[in-house]
Amino acid sequence: MLLLLAEYLQQFHTGFAVFQYLSLRGILGVLTALVLSLWMGPWLIRTLQLRQIGQSVRTDGPQTHLAKSGTPTMGGALILSAITISTLLWADLGNRYVWVVLAVTLLFGAIGWVDDYRKVIEKNSRGLPSRWKYFWQSVFGLGAAIFLYMTAQTPVETTLILPLLKNVEIPLGIGFVVLTYFVIVGSSNAVNLTDGLDGLAIMPTVMVGGALGIFCYLSGNVNFADYLLIPYIPGAGELIVFCGALIGAGLGFLWFNTYPAQVFMGDVGALALGAALGTIAVIVRQEVVLFIMGGVFVMETLSVMIQVASFKLTGKRVFRMAPIHHHFELKGWPEPRVIVRFWIITVILVLVGLATLKLR
Q1: Is position 192 annotated in a ligand binding site?
Q2: Taking the C-alpha atoms of 119, 124, 126 and 128 in order, what is their torsion angle to the nearest 10 degrees?
């Protein structure tokens, strides 16, 4: 939106041409979303408190969590609002990738909103039934996958790229739709499972989102892509604005979500952010790198799968409680220790993911 204004004003003063630079608009996306989050946060928290939209806590979990009962939830709406406004202000609205990522983010956020609404407002402990949640995730995930497949302009946009192997490219054909579906839906649920401690999910999301922003910038530049031997995806660079907005909104939310949290993200934020990360990774053809950088999300998801499978097959539990962050809490780790150590793991994994840019 502001990019169009800058293009119009450029005829009066050449200084407005600076807004054509993706790097500048990415930075402005960060700052705009951050300011919006910090500005709207206190109002949102007061509104949630007045409406008694508070978190209910499981009594069979760590006893330290009982004190969190009643903490305002559905704070993910703050993140999505800041991301959307910042992206619409600074991104090129003629770019199809911007719209598909925004659409996936908001649609998955809508699923989470309905789930949170039923749990918190209607006092329905089940929330949105799992079959319906998965159904709508599948509808929106497949919709995004088919759109990206049908609008692909070059073969590389539907090719599987393996990091470290510069000469290995696997054409997926219609299999691209299947892979994209699993990446988007899987990422959405993985972030949602991780969102169980104050700040645990949002900071890894910010770090992975920032790294994906670097991939977007490099993949959208033909010279950088050729030098680094990564796929050149025309138009992908514009997603650095969305990634910047995600970083700013996430850091702004963390200001209120850090231990002890004043507000929780809820499914409205977790489902949306996970789907956004998955969609961006698919666009820049870095699904495998997302798997590496999002190792904490993968670990949390696998812990739940292992726990359920073990209990059904043997009647025994592998972990004291799943997802795995609760296991460490029940072992005696203070909550801040679990959070910060998972952040440290994410920093290391993100650096490993970025290292694949050169190790090919």
Answers
A1: yes
A2: -60
